[in-house]
Amino acid sequence: MTPQEFRQYGHATVDWIADYWERLESLPVAPDVEPGQVRSLLPARPPERGEPFESLLRDMDDIVVPGLLHWQHPRFFGYFPANTSGPAVLADLLSAGLGVQGMSWATGPACTEMEEHVLDWLVEILGLPDHFRSGSRGGGVIQDTASSALLVSLVAALQRAGKGAVRSDGVGARRYGIYVTAETHSSAVKAAVITGLGERTVRYVRTDPATLALDADHLRTLVLRDLADDITPLLAVATVGTTSTTAVDPVAAIGRVSREHGIWLHVDAAYAGVAAVCPELRWLNDGVAEYADSYCTNPHKWLLTNFDCDTFWVADRAWLTGALTILPEYLRNAPSESGLVTDYRNWQIPLGRRFRALKLWAVIRWYGVEGLRRHIREGVATAARLAEWIRADERFELTAPHPLSLVCFRLRTPPGTDADEAGRRLLDRVNASGTTFLTHSRIDGRITLRIATGGTFTRPHHVEQAWQCLVREADRLLASGLDQSHGRGAG
Ligand SMILES: *Cc1c(COP(=O)(O)O)cnc(C)c1O
Fold first, then answer.
1. What is the domain extent for residue 447?
2. pLDDT of residue 448
3. Same domain, 351 and 369
4. Residue 79 CA: which ligand 1 atom is closest?
5. Is the residue at 76 inside a domain?
6. pLDDT of res. 484
7. Ligand 1 centroid – CA 402 distance (Å)
8. What percent of the chain stands above pLDDT 90?
9. Which of 106, 181, 357, 438 could tie 333 with a disulfide, CB 3.0–4.6 Å?
10. What CATH code is carried by the domain that includes residue 416?
11. pLDDT reading at 491 higher than 50
12. pTM greater than 0.70
């Protein structure tokens, strides 16, 4: 493709994206496709001869769009939002166009320094501690995901616990404990598996039944029990905004136990952390400055930056880079050896890395901090309003606190009916309507429905429409009777 052709099809592609965003609202949120249906529309063999770009864009309309769950739809309320935005997409295009690999400072000086700088900006914007800034003992890096952030935190924790021995000897014969709750993200267990520590290393600390937050007294009990069994307490994960319900673990209380016993404290604020851009939500950072060894939040969830962009900080980078530093001969260069520059390959799992700071830079510049605050506040305000409607409606009940932009609730069902089955059927009906998309989770063993606001294109009236859809489908479900014969059985 010549630069001239690129210009032509580039314009057409940007037009395509803008058209997609404009017509999103008229599309069903969730696709109506069977497994295998999309592949059946694709040619079995790759083309021998090149094809015109127009036919690719046509297939986007005919094959791809009908086969997608539309995460940017204004009435997508499932999981957590995966915000994208104009400035983020355009800057990601610039990154693709540059095609730079930023594994070392020398392989892309602007790539590295922009990342350090934008992460320092974010420290200021979110009110994070100064020791997270570049130029201090700590520092920040963009990881692909919060899952990777947790994995490298675990490796850094092993490095510290083994006084550097993990690098040469691996995990060794020592037995370790990792402390999470049933609400902690599954990436903690995955990290235990990947590092070879295994699932048996993971201890589940009790949660408070009302708030679902970690019980720090029980953490202390489990740690003391492990110590008595000659098991080394290694890593505690405190979640600020759990995936199921946005519960907030008591970081300071967990930090005190961790500090006392030399446990690495990782704070996972994947979804909620970015909300600290608002001064009234700064309490989300309580305990982080004093106790967190590592901390992450995902602008790719709720801060208008398209996937992937997890911002990750450590209080002392020596353990992380001590474990992960690699310098093969072909990457040797004078700046690296001078020690004056950051080589981000030593902060992450892969060697290669994209110029991801560009999209964050573009988002912060386009919206300004004020615009970021407005976005977070709208998500919080629409969720609060929705929660009020649910609280005031006798057909429903709230099932968890809603400090941010996620509301958990369930249908009230008559005694003797299967409440979980009713929840599943309501969810199926709402999602099959095509107008609104929700997901579910389990609290205390029971199905709960979740509505996460905070989408880039979601405005207050879309949340109102979702509420109307819920009420309509709940009425139909209740009118059809909730007897077990309609159930799908326990799936
Ligand atoms: C979404 C989420 C994650 C995982 O995010 P990825 O960036 O996709 O790995 C981890 N922790 C919490 C609390 C989350 O909500």
1. 362-480
2. 96
3. no
4. 1
5. no
6. 52
7. 18
8. 90
9. 106
10. 3.90.1150.10
11. no
12. yes
Distance CA 99, CA 351 (A): 15
443: Cβ–Cβ under 8 A, 6 or more apart, which residues? 212, 244, 245, 399, 400, 408
Average pLDDT in the 237-266 region?
98
42 CA → ligand 1 middle, Å: 32
Q: Is the pLDDT at 161 greater than 90, yes or no?
A: yes
Q: How many helices (H) and strands (E) does the chain have?
A: 17, 11
* Beta pairing partners, 143: 310
Handedness of CA 372, 375, 378, 383 (dihedral sign): negative
Give 268 Cα–ligand 1 centroid separation in angstroms.
8
3-state secondary structure string across 461-482: HHHHHHHHHHHHHHHHHHHCCC
The answer to whether position 377 is within a domain reads yes
Ligand 1 pocket (Cβ < 6 Å) reads 80, 145-147, 185, 187, 239, 241-243, 268, 270-271, 298, 310
Which CATH number goes with the domain that contains 10?
1.20.1340.10
Q: Which atom of ligand 1 is nearest to the CA of 243?
A: 15
Best residue among 71, 80, 147 to mutate for probing ligand 1, ranked by most atoms within 8 Å of CB: 147
Among 271, 307, 309, 405, residue to substitute to test ligand 1 (most atoms within 8 Å of Cβ)? 271
Q: d(Cα 105, Cα 258) in Å, to the nearest integer? A: 34
Residues 179 and 321 in one domain: yes
Taking CA atoms only, the protein residue closest to ligand 1 atom 4 is 146
Distance 339 CA to ligand 1 centre (A): 33
Average pLDDT over residues 268-276: 98
How far, in Å, CA of 294 to CA of 398, rounded? 33
On the 0-12 / 13-18 / 19+ scale of CB atoms within 10 A, 433 is: middle
Residues 244 and 169 in one domain: yes
Point out the least confidently predicted range of 67-81, 166-180, 259-273. 166-180
Is 80 inside a domain boundary? no
The 10s digit of each residue's pLDDT in 105-125 is 999 999 999 999 999 999 999
Q: pLDDT exceeding 70 applies to what percent of the chain? A: 98
- Is residue 325 domain-shared with residue 435, that is, in the same domain? no
- Both tokens of 212, joined, read 């679902």
CATH of the domain at 345: 3.40.640.10
Q: Is residue 52 part of a domain?
A: yes
Q: In ligand 1, which atom is closest to the CA atom of 241?
A: 13
Residue 202 CA, ligand 1 centroid: distance in Å = 18
| Ligand 1 atom with least separation from CA of 239 | 13
Domains: count for the chain: 3
In this structure, the answer to whether residues 243 and 372 fall within a common structural domain is no
